[in-house]
Amino acid sequence: MIRAFLFLLCVILLGYWPQQSDFTLIAGLYGGAFLLYFWVVLHVGRGALSREQLLGPQESFRFGLVSWMWVAVLARLALLWGMPHLSDDVYRFIWDGRLGAQGLDVFAHLPAWYMEEGHEVRGLTRELFEQLNSPEYFTIYPPVAQAVFRLAARLFPESVYGSVLVLRTFLLLCELGSLYLLPLILRRLQLPKERVLLYALNPLVIVEISGNLHFEGAMVFFFLLFVWAWLEARRGLAALAMSLSIGAKLLPLMLLPLLAARMWQASFWLRLQGPGAEKEMAGGRASRWRAVLWFLVLGFFLLLLFYPFMGPFFAQHFGESLDLYFRRFEFNASVYYLLRWLRYLQLGYNDIHRLGPLLGLVVAVAILGMALWSLRRRFLTIEEGVLFFLQQSLWAFVLYLGLATIVHPWYLTMPVLLAVFSRWRFPLWWSYAITWTYINYSYPVYRENLWVVGLEYGSVLLFMLWEWRRQKKRGQGGRPGP
């Protein structure tokens, strides 16, 4: 009980108290929250969370898995009434929402255009403009996020706090949905139900989604809805859920080759093993046609989502923002920083405009290679195929983040989720180590502390190697297991 109270206290204080520049306070609160979180994780790894394991034999009341789930829910509920302090992305959300709520194209002009005389729009004030962290770039948020921004602006056209409350409520519902779906999926995949706490109690996930309002929470919920719908043989709902996940954040797009490889096999269409399973698995050609049809339905749903935003400026300006993401933005990178240093020694300048797209291409080719290689694997049931897909997805995200030019803390949300379905736990450590990057905001003038970046990725790499050696000794060959 005391541990649960201290965990809630650390998380709530993180959501309400420190500013970005208060690194000592952030480090202390995150350190305390993660210390308690890792204590629970260690017990999760040992099996069921009994009273003695969680609180010791001296406690006179039961405090098990269900109680810790309530702690996870309360931590999210407690952040409902605050303002984001550790991220200022929310002001761009509100800016886009106020534009869209008035029927204006959010991709048409840069924010500075609306500050010029004759271009004024109601609600786009100078005060709001000065709080934007990227006024020189076109918006990059996809349709599901934009729809929620517009809803918030319609309900509260003049109130920043009111809009924040709407965004928080939406993401809270998404998180509650994720906490509901995760145990259902774990049960179907025959994995320990206690693993739900790896995601439910992760302090970074709670603070970055429920506190700082990042739409990874929506992406995760719709992705889990896709997984559950596929396991339940609800193919139409699965296609809709995957399209909504992509519409919340574009990142699940990179998982489609892995998904296509699984769908290419007849076994991925089987809900359960039964008398007709062998006959069904023999119909490989039929399964491939069904895979093509499913992707056509997915494409149709994506078209419906994006169509309302496909104005005359969408393709050009949205594409420009994506291009800038790979060619200009850099923060907390690993492999890219090493290549940047080597290229600087050669050329005398930062070669990000070449390195960024090249690394993105490497990720795309590698994921395609993973998909083609996985075609050699055969599974008897859909559960086996889904579990393999989820484990491959973890490595796809790790590869993407390892080669990315920019890795913000909330980007670790999906790897933390996918770690639930594997034996790998280094994403959990990474979700803590990445909080050290808040030190960059503590200096009088923002600068990136590369020693901290090196410490972060060095510790993650050592943790990964330690896990690999441990799993190899156990006869798993270093492959991710369930």
How does this model look, in words?
- The structure is a single chain.
- By secondary structure, the chain is mostly helical.
- The chain contains 22 helices and no strands.
- The chain has one domain (2-86, 166-473).
- Helix 7 (143-155) crosses helix 8 (160-188).
- It is globular and about 65 Å long.
- It has helices spanning 2-16, 23-46, 51-55, 65-78, 90-101, 126-130, 143-155, 160-188, 196-200, 203-211, 216-231, 235-248, 256-263, 277-282, 284-306, 314-327, 335-347, 352-374, 382-403, 413-419, 426-433, 450-473.
Helices and strands, with pairings:
Layout lengths: L1 H15 L6 H24 L4 H5 L9 H14 L11 H12 L24 H5 L12 H13 L4 H29 L7 H5 L2 H9 L4 H16 L3 H14 L7 H8 L13 H6 L1 H23 L7 H14 L7 H13 L4 H23 L7 H22 L9 H7 L6 H8 L16 H24 L9
Helix pairs in contact: 1-2, 1-4, 1-10, 4-8, 4-10, 5-7, 7-8, 8-11, 11-12, 12-15, 13-18, 16-18, 18-19, 19-20, 20-21, 21-22
